[in-house]
């Protein structure tokens, strides 16, 4: 249902090579009805769901910051041009070097990332954490967006590839008793443990479940029954990215 009802699904499948399964099934069912063929699956035609625009804007906030940065750059150029004409400020470098626009783009991206962090990574509390038995219901919500962060604590078997082909941790899957879901892992500096060593073992993961074209969990911790814990600092790395981007943007803007 998410695949053919969510109104923002088209923006979330830009990097997908194939149409979503729900859309393909809906098309096949439409052809079957036209030919008066009996179908084994019934997907009723419904209007797109009404999803909060705020959730979508939060989702695209870093990228929305780029055109906003362009508007800010135009305002800066007009103000400085007027100030130069009136001989208030001698900032002629603004006419000779347009790299300050890149600085505005980076600052806009950084501000959008900072705005999104609190929504993307809320505190995980035991009282609000969802468990394995709720996973199918959470994944079947057709109105969900990746920015609708759901705190989860799931138990299952870790699947994935070993070796350098998975050196960035891009191919891990948790196989729980109710469903399988992809895991997003980021390595902490100086951390000796590697999730590849736990492939095939029973683990407990905590993190933020996100529903997009492909559901996934941004990991916070990955823990074995023996007590070994591996941390995945998504909020920290997001903050580092925002701060570094803003610092580079400010340097470009001031240097010209």
Specify Rg, calculated over alpha carbons.
23 Å
Quaternary class:
single chain
What profile does the largest beta sheet have? Answer: 5 strands, mixed, barrel
Overall structural domain count: 3
Extract low-pLDDT stretches.
none
Q: Any idea what the shape is? A: globular
Average residue-wise pLDDT:
87
How large a portion of the residues is in β-strands, by DSSP E? 15-25%
- With strands numbered from the N-terminus, the spatial order across the biggest sheet is 1-2-3-5-4
Number of strands: 6
N→C terminal distance: 50 Å
Count of helical stretches: 8
Task: Kindly identify the CATH topology of the largest domain.
Answer: OB fold (Dihydrolipoamide Acetyltransferase, E2P)
The fourth-level CATH homologous superfamily of the largest domain is: Bacterial OB-fold
Do you know the CATH architecture of the largest domain?
A: Beta Barrel
CATH class of the largest domain: Mainly Beta
Structure overview:
The protein has a five-stranded mixed β-barrel with strand order 1-2-3-5-4. The protein starts with a helix and ends with a helix. It contains eight helices and six strands, in the order H-H-H-H-H-H-H-E-E-E-E-E-E-H. The chain is an alpha+beta fold. 40% of the residues lie in helices and 16% in strands. The protein has helices at 2-5, 21-34, 53-59, 61-85, 93-96, 100-120, 135-139, 234-255, and strands at residues 150-160, 172-176, 180-184, 202-210, 216-224, 229-231. Helix 4 runs antiparallel to helix 6 and helix 6 runs antiparallel to helix 8 (234-255). The chain is globular, with a radius of gyration of 23 Å. A hairpin with a 5-residue loop joins strand 4 and strand 5. The protein has three domains: 2-50, no CATH class; 56-120 and 244-255, no CATH class; 132-225, Bacterial OB-fold (OB fold (Dihydrolipoamide Acetyltransferase, E2P), Beta Barrel).
């Amino acid at each position: 249902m998410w695949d053919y009802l969510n109104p923002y699904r088209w923006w979330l499948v830009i990097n997908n090579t194939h149409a979503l399964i729900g859309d393909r099934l809906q098309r096949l069912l439409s052809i079957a009805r036209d030919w008066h063929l009996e179908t084994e699956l019934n997907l009723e035609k419904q209007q797109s769901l009404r999803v909060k625009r705020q959730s979508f804007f939060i989702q695209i906030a870093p990228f929305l910051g780029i055109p906003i940065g362009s508007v800010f750059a135009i305002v800066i150029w007009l103000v400085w041009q007027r100030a130069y004409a009136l001989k208030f400020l001698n900032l002629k470098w603004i006419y000779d070097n347009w790299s300050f626009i890149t600085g505005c783009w980076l600052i806009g991206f950084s501000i959008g990332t900072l705005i999104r962090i609190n929504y993307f990574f809320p505190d995980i509390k035991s009282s609000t954490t969802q468990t394995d038995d709720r996973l199918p219901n959470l994944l079947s919500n057709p109105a969900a967006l990746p920015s609708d962060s759901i705190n989860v604590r799931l138990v299952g078997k870790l699947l994935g590839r070993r070796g350098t082909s998975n050196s960035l941790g891009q191919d891990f899957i948790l196989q729980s008793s109710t469903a399988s879901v992809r895991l997003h892992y980021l390595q902490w500096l100086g951390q000796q443990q590697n999730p590849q060593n736990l492939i095939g073992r029973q683990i407990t993961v905590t993190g933020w479940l996100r529903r997009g074209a492909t559901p996934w969990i941004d990991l916070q911790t990955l823990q074995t029954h023996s007590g070994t814990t591996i941390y995945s600092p998504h909020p920290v790395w997001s903050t580092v990215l925002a701060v570094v981007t803003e610092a580079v943007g400010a340097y470009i803007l001031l240097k010209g």
